[in-house]
Amino acid sequence: MAEGWQGEVGLTGAVLAVAMAVRLAVGLHPYSGMGNPPKFGDYEAQRHWMEVTINLPAKEWYVHTERNDLGHWGLDYPPMSAYQSYAHGLLVRAFEPAAVELGTSVGYETESSKDLLRATVLVSDLLIMFPAVFLALRAIYPHAGPRRRAWALAVALLHPGFVLIDHGHFQYNCISLGLVAGAVAAIWRGRDLLGSCLYVLALNHKHMSAYYALAFFAHLLGAALRLPTWRSSATKVSALGAAVVLTFALAWLPFLGDRDLALAVLRRLVPIRRGVFEDYVSNFWCVTHVAIKWKKLLSDQQLAKCCALVTAAACAPSVAHQLLRPSRRGLLLAALNCSLGFYLFSFQVHEKSILLPCLPAALLSLEYPWACLHFAIVSAFSMIPLLQKDGLELACAACVVIFISAASAGGEVLGPRRPGREAAAAASLTAMAALSAVKAFASPPERYPYLFDLLISALAFAHFACYFVYWNVELWARHSGTAATKRD
């Protein structure tokens, strides 16, 4: 038993070392907005939020003042992101004060500040995402064995999207995704209150985590309603509600004393003015806009309502399943289906939003290895227009090759060869590789400058739509009633 534990520690250490090395290597590449004034990009946004939060009181973080120009990357994430920016800003100021000097550091770019900010993402990944995914996989697959769990950990931590967006493009998705993974691990262990609190923290770090909200709500409510008595159900629901409200209150505490300030924060989080989509993204509204000019047919407010209705309908089967037949694996599939439904149909979706369904897919890799591996590659492919804009084409190709190499090492996990499945996967990968090469090396027609972006979005959307149907069918076919609960 001791030898088994030592073996798992060794395998896990090796996976973590490779994951760290890949992140460091990607961090050597360009980032969003590098050398591109006056707005620069996401790197400047994150740096600016550090500048604002460490130099101004909380009451000025989300409002336009002489010292805080919301026109230049105004803070538009929930309070936990602001606190994260504050903590990282203190760290950056300790080593390079000029990088976060109020008012004079706009567009600040040096090699040392780049290294410092890259380090803050790396530390966040190491402290939150890595342990959370490790604990989630141990909870989900307690009898899988060290080698299989190490393979699943490698698949999750070497996921091209997780690496490229945070350590290339420059974001901190590892924090909110790590908190969600921690919530899954807690719920799997029967600690629903802790899981609820962790999920609320994730939601208050990035409000895109709302993609999971219906799945978590339905599962926890469904499980509570299955308790032996109405009294025990009411007690459990009350406890969960209290945990959620208290966690929200603590996260928003600096803003709750002033109603106008709290509303100002909320207004910053709702991007209605930005339209149903901006750049090309692999979802329904963007892909079908070629034939149906949604932006001309409907106002932004009308489109927002339409998106809300269609998204709710897309999530309804998973919500109904978890209310009627809650199970822990069902929660993962419901989270996958709901987050993918939000990506495909909700309002103002970003390319990087595909990372949200990628997390539950990665956690299901030992149950659906081929589907989850292919889904990860498609998700990276869908972000090529964004990554090319950042100068990350080479990094993307390298990350995909490393990911496929790591995945190929799990021969016994992948199971026996199936010619039909492998032929379909080969055709899909060939089409994605060919279109990626065309995007990288060819020039689009002058009349259609975004033709290649549209083709990438359309091909990725077709894959995502198929997976959305597949995983919804899987949820109802394989995780039904008492049998599903026993298998968990």
Automatic annotation (TrEMBL):
The chain crosses the membrane at residues 9-31, 116-137, 170-188, 209-227, 239-257, 330-348, 368-387, 394-411, 423-442, 449-470. Pathway: Protein modification; protein glycosylation. The keyword Transmembrane helix applies. InterPro entries: Glyco_trans_ALG6/ALG8. GO terms for molecular function: dolichyl pyrophosphate Man9GlcNAc2 alpha-1,3-glucosyltransferase activity. One of its GO terms (cellular component) is endoplasmic reticulum membrane. It is found in: Endoplasmic reticulum membrane. Its EC number is 2.4.1.-. Keywords: Endoplasmic reticulum, Glycosyltransferase, Membrane, Transferase, Transmembrane, Transmembrane helix. It is a multi-pass membrane protein. Its main location: endoplasmic reticulum. PANTHER family: DOLICHYL GLYCOSYLTRANSFERASE, DOLICHYL PYROPHOSPHATE MAN9GLCNAC2 ALPHA-1,3-GLUCOSYLTRANSFERASE. Belongs to the ALG6/ALG8 glucosyltransferase family. This is Alpha-1,3-glucosyltransferase. It comes from Chloropicon roscoffensis. The lineage of its organism: Eukaryota, Viridiplantae, Chlorophyta, Chloropicophyceae, Chloropicales.
